[in-house]
Amino acid sequence: MKNIYLLLLFLVPFASFSQDSDLGNWMIYFGNKDFSDRFNWHHEVQYRNYNAIGDLEQLLLRTGLGYNLTEGNNNILLGYGYILSQNYLELSDEKFDINEHRIYQQFITKQSIGIVNLQHRYRFEQRFVEDDFKLRFRYFLAFNIPLNNEELVDNTTYLSVYNELFINSEANVFDRNRLYGGIGYKVNSNVRFELGYMNQFLGNKNRDQINIVSFINL
C-alpha cells in the first residue's frame, strides 16, 4: 500500500520518576492512502509516555477524509479524533483519565522556495472534553532544507524545522507552542531519519524533548 508513512518518535527521559520528568517518549504512526488523484484517507495513532515506555500520558487516534484541490500541493480534510489522557494527581503517583472526542477541519499547502520545502497546516478543532466543549485553532509551519543536494532525493542530509502555535477561543487564548529543530537523512523514497530537539511552551512551564524520528513509506 503506497503513500503510507510511519513515524516513531522517541524522547529520552532524564529522571526515573515519570511525573517529575519533563522528558518522555512519543510513538506515532501516520498513514495516508490515496483513493484517486483527488481523495485520500488520513489515519494516525500516537502513543505518548511520560517516560521511555509503559507510563501512558496520552493515546491519540485520528482519522480523516481529504480532498486535493490541486495535485499534491493543496489538501482540505475533515476528520475525527479520540484522545485518552492520563494525568497525575498533584503530589501523587495516582492518575485520572480524561476522554476527549474531537472533530477537526484542516487545510495543508506545500511550496518550494529555492531548495527550501515549506508546509503550512491550518487546523480548526471542536473538542468535546468530558462534559466540556472547547474550540481551538492550530497553525503549523515546517521547513525541510537539503544540505548536500539541491533537492530531497535519495542519500540527502537535511535540516528540519517546524513551529506549531495553538490558540483557544476562551479567555485564556494561548494554549501552547511547539518549536522543533533537527537533522534528517533521507535514505530513499521510503525511509527517512531525524534527530532533533523540541521545546513545548505551555504558558507557565516548558518541556524540553529530544526527538529521534523514523519515517517509513510502505
Q: What percentage of the residues does DSSP assign to strands (E)? A: over 45%
What's the oligomerization state?
A: single chain
Structural class determined from secondary elements: mainly beta
Instruction: Please tell me what the overall shape is.
Output: globular
Task: Please tell me the total number of domains.
Answer: 1
* N-end to C-end Cα span: 6 Å
CATH superfamily: monomeric porin ompg
Helix content: under 10%
Strand order of the largest sheet: 1-2-3-4-5-6-7-8-9-10-11-12
- Supply Rg: 18 Å
Low-confidence stretches: 1-21
In the CATH scheme, what's the topology name? Porin
Count up the helices: 0
Question: What is the count of β-strands?
Answer: 12
Describe the structure.
The protein is an all-beta fold. It has one domain (about 5-215): monomeric porin ompg (Porin), CATH 2.40.160.40. It is built from no helices and twelve strands. The protein has strands spanning about 5-10, 25-35, 40-50, 55-70, 75-90, 95-115, 115-130, 130-145, 155-170, 175-185, 190-200, 205-215. Strands 1-2-3-4-5-6-7-8-9-10-11-12 form a twelve-stranded antiparallel beta barrel. It is globular and about 50 Å long.
